Amino acid sequence: LDAYSPFDIEGMADALALHSSKISYFVLGGGLIGMLLGFGMQYWSAVINYPINVGGRPLASIPAFIPVTFELGVLFGAFSGLIGMLILNGLPMPYHPVFNVPAFKAVTRDGFFLCIEVSDPQFDPTTTRQFLESLNPLGVADVAE
């Protein structure tokens, strides 16, 4: 079940039961990977690969590593959030069968559309059509793949 409208409708996600908080896992995972990568890269270069002891200071200076660690955590978190959003939304979607309905072009201006897919377990062609027609819509269309 999916709904299309020319603007955001408050409460539509609740009505369609579209609660997806999985994007936060993408951002957290990407941020942690970025932080580990940033810290590991600095630690490897300053302690293992090219250690230079200046004035008896420790090689692994944790406070000096914090800015790059933070910035890479934010960068990787943002990019993984973007990639996660695209994956979870099924984008890019260059083609969907509902695009073949001539009236669907109005969805960007003043059209409201509800798409019920055949894969829905409660879908029955006759009862679903009767239910939708009982709501007095401007039209009900069957979409072929």
Beta-strand content bin: under 5%
Q: Which oligomeric state applies? A: single chain
Question: How many angstroms separate the termini?
Answer: 16 Å
Strand order of the largest sheet: 1-2
Shape: rod-shaped
The average pLDDT value, as a whole number, equals 90
Helix content: 40-55%
H-E order: EHHHEH
Estimated structural class: mainly alpha
Largest sheet: 2 strands, antiparallel
- Tally of individual helices: 4
The low-confidence parts are none
Please report the total strand number as a whole number. 2
SSE arrangement:
Elements: E1 2-4, H1 12-15, H2 23-49, H3 62-88, E2 113-115, H4 125-134
Helix pairs in contact: 2-3
Features:
145 residues, two-stranded antiparallel sheet, single chain, 4 helices, 2 strands
